[in-house]
Structure formats: C-alpha cells, structure tokens
C-alpha cells in the first residue's frame, strides 16, 4: 500500500463526531461496496490475516474494551468490510471496522472476526471508508479541511470529486484548503477537531499566524498541553486548545512594535546594521560607505553566520 494511501486511511480514522452527514454520497459509495461483496456472504476470518496499516493508537482503549465486552457477551452483530490483498491472496486489507477488528484481536474468547469480502481497488476502498465515516459522523470544519487537503495532496481525485465525498461545494473546499494550509497540519492536529469552531474563527487564526512570527512548535506544545491538562468539566478540550492558541497569537498585538520588530547596531561613523523581524523570519540590512568593509563582509559573513548558528544549536 502506498504512503499516500496510508495517510488517507489515517486521516479517515482520525475524524470524529456524532450527527449524520453527506447521506446521498454515503449511500451511493456504501451501496457500491455492498454490490462488490462476494455473494453477500459473511465470512469468519482469522483477525491476523487482515492488514490494517493505520495506527491502533488512534483508537480509544476504553471504547475498544467496551465493544470487546459486548462482542464476547452477545457476539459480533455487524461484520467488518475487507478486500483481498492483491499481493498476497491469503490475506485481506481492512476497508472499515477498525474498532470491531481490534476488539476481536484482543479477545481471549472470540477467535474469528465476521467480515464481508469486497472486490475493490484502492480508490473504491477510500471512497467507501470516507462515505462510511462521513455518513455516521459530524465532521468539524477543520477535519473536513484537513481531509480535503489530504485527498488532493495524494492525488485521490479532482477538487470536484473531493467536494462530492465531503458533500461540500467547490468554493467551500477552496476556502477550507486555504485555512488548512494556512494553519498547517501539525498545529491543526495538535489543536484537534474543535467542534463548534467554524470557518470564520479558523480563518482568523490562519491570518494571525501569518501576521505574527511566533514559533509554530511553541503553539503546538501549548495546544497539546491544554488538551492533556483540561479540567474534567471542560466539554471539549480541543476547543480550549484552539482558544489558548488564538489568545497567544492575540497577545502578540500587545507587544510594542519598537521592542518586537527591529534593532539597530551602529558600526562606526559610516556604517549601520539593522535587524528586522518579519513574518518570514529575520531580515539583516547593512548600510555602509566603507567599500573595504563591504568586500570583507561579503567574504566572511557566511562563515561567521554559520558559527553563530552552531553556537545557537549548542546553547
């Protein structure tokens, strides 16, 4: 399985919510998956014969444990969906049903997992899993944005096809992509789904990120800390993480420009060095009438900056 396919499956698995969405698209893709099932038969398969390249760390252990107890008590009432591995005829690739598969794998009392086997390629499998997820979950704005970006970046299809999967207009997809790329996957993932935080506030966050040159790793650490240490009465830690990151960026407005943006360093009577912080990093401007100094700096500035960088790394 390609790295792009693995990332798409991982992104699908990370989506969370509760209310139905995109019913027409979901019904169509899932109906196609059922039509591809081998004689509509339910098979009892060895869980270890099924490959699932997505990390099990994304699953809630308590959720899986509860499902395992239910399956051990009353049996597995809903089968998973797999397809045959084109490279190994004795193995299968999971399409959807991760929680059920993990529940059976961890059980000492249930040896086989009930599954339907469908004939489908990578694209059809992603479509089926996307529709199964969006059909039973209410994705937040940023989850849809990241998912759309993932599908387009891995050549899943056109923007119109991605819009159809997510039941959005092409213009909505364009706006979502602008936000996801402006915020960045790492920071957005650290914040989390943030249900209730809509497009306007995410757009404002993306704009603030471009305006204030704050280190993104610092913001990621802040978001992860807030989510990990949220009080029990906080309904959605990811919303709290979003608010914390947004507030941290907004506080940058309160820093006086003179203190934040520039510093002058005089270099004798005819020369001056100015360091200016920009949204892209740091700009260094040297004004001098001393041509010998200019020539000397052209020759030695590179090694000197490399030495400064090495000193910074050792600090």
From TrEMBL:
Q: Which CDD domains match?
A: RepB_like_N
Protein origin, superkingdom: Bacteria
Where, if anywhere, are coiled coils annotated? Answer: none
Q: Which InterPro entries match?
A: Chromosome_partition/occlusion, ParB/RepB/Spo0J, ParB/Sulfiredoxin_sf, ParB_N, Plasmid_partition_RepB, RepB_N
- Name the SMART domains for this protein: ParB (SM00470)
Give start and end of each ParB-like N-terminal domain. 43-134
The record's similarity note reads:
Belongs to the ParB family.
The protein's matches in PANTHER family, at most eight in alphabetical order, are given as:
CHROMOSOME-PARTITIONING PROTEIN PARB-RELATED
Name of this chain's protein: Plasmid partitioning protein RepB
The beginning of the lineage is:
Bacteria, Pseudomonadati, Pseudomonadota, Alphaproteobacteria, Rhodobacterales
Give me the gene this protein comes from: repB
